[in-house]
Amino acid sequence: MTKYTRRFFVKSAMLISTMFSSACSVLSASSDKKKMYASMSIEEAKAHRKAWWKKNPILLKDYQVKACGKWRIHMLGTSAGSEPTPKNNHTSWVLEKPNGELLWFDAGVYCSWTAHNMGLDVLQAKNMFLSHPHADHFIGLADFFTTVNKIRWLYRGKVAYSLNIYTSAPEMVNAAMLFSTAGMGTQKYVNVQTLKVGEVYNDGDVSVEAITNRHMKPRKDGSLPSYSYRIKIASVKKSIIFSGDIKSLHDLAPFLNDGGADLIMLETGHHDAENLCRNLKEVYPNAVKDVLFMHHGRHMRNNREFEEARAEAAWGKPVIISHDKQTIDFA
Ligand SMILES: [Zn+2]
Ligand SMILES: [Zn+2]
Predict the structure, then answer these.
(1) Which of 38, 152, 273, 287 is surrounded by the fewest CB atoms within 10 Å?
(2) What is the pTM of this model?
(3) Is 105 helix (H, G, I), strand (E, B) or coil?
(4) CA 246 to ligand 2 center in whole angstroms
């Protein structure tokens, strides 16, 4: 219990007066400016606004692609399908090619806002791979289209753009288009590809293979709507396995049994990182070099240090417990 001594009252009074005086200095600076603005004539105010717009034009010129010269992974959202939290949005990440092009995986809430605000060029997302039609991997799609439409508008529609979307639920992509600013006009640049098992993308350097997993129940026709991916980059001889949401680590056996992956990105929304590490080490000892965790559930989000320590003890070396807006140099 707090002891209300004389010292306590003196300290509290000092603290309050410091807070008050710094608040007052901010207030007086802003009220000086406010006074100056208020004293402007209508003509002067008009000129003031005009000068601002001249310095800050809405429309942009000369679209240029920023090439980063590396292979980088950017984590846009690392939360599982939880309620809103202050620092974690739902699942989405991108692989940035050295030439600036983005391979986009999943589209959780605000993913395009996060990417844009991280300095990534959303117009360089030409291929998007959706793991499965659950909202925490999908709901940011309408926002994504809206961001693309807005940025294209800023360049007066002069930047050519097209986007392939690989999904097991084309009807949900259509629904997301309806919600975006350009509505079904978005269809002009979107090319929806229905996912199937096997290689779904190959640009001569990067290939993306898809396998089904048991996270979602089979549909009436027996097909599985939930997918995991393996990305291979020939030029740097590296590969990544992305679990999406999985029922068990063994869903990834077709990739893990091949061995030699450089990085596995595993979800912790339905699994403990520690158990995943132990299983990987015991059942698939040469499957992957490094482990990254994402799609964090409540326990991971609130006990990172604990989960990291347990996972690293099980894995025998450092792991990456990823967080939103994290960039990782991959190659
Ligand atoms: Zn999920
Ligand atoms: Zn899911």
Answers:
(1) 38
(2) 0.90
(3) strand
(4) 8
